[in-house]
Amino acid sequence: MVLILETVCLCLAFWGICYLSTGTDEKNLKGLSAYPDEIQRRVKEDPILGPQVKTVPPVTRFFSNLLLYTILLLILCFFIRENGFLPNFCHVLIMGEILNAFDFLVMDLLWWRHTSRVRFSGTENQPELYQSPKNHFISFGKGIAMFFIAAVVDGLLLSLF
User: Fold this and answer.
1) pTM score > 0.90 for this model?
2) What is the mean pLDDT of residues 4-21?
């Protein structure tokens, strides 16, 4: 029961953070890698926004997210830890993969692709530019691997306590 409650709270907190991190061109630039390739190209070519684009190598982004979520899930699952690796691994994996599925299905495919909040100036009236799910599928796949690794690490750490 606690696992379900923590997972729901985590998903809601994640949505809240994503919502607060969008709404202006400057805020939206932070998540530019999630945008369809055409939008990324337009933003990088824009005389005002282009110079503000900060490129983070995908490997760096993956490992920084891995570290963040490994620590976060370790803290959340610390309160429901059990003896042995397997139950702790399963708790972390369930929580992480549900968050990943929530991000993909609810946040990316339902909300993100249809809200004007994530649109850049000059493309507000072109919602079709934001419809490609390609980068969301790629992120979902990376999330599966990332949360599996986090579950292994956290499962080991939680079984030591």
Assistant:
1) yes
2) 96
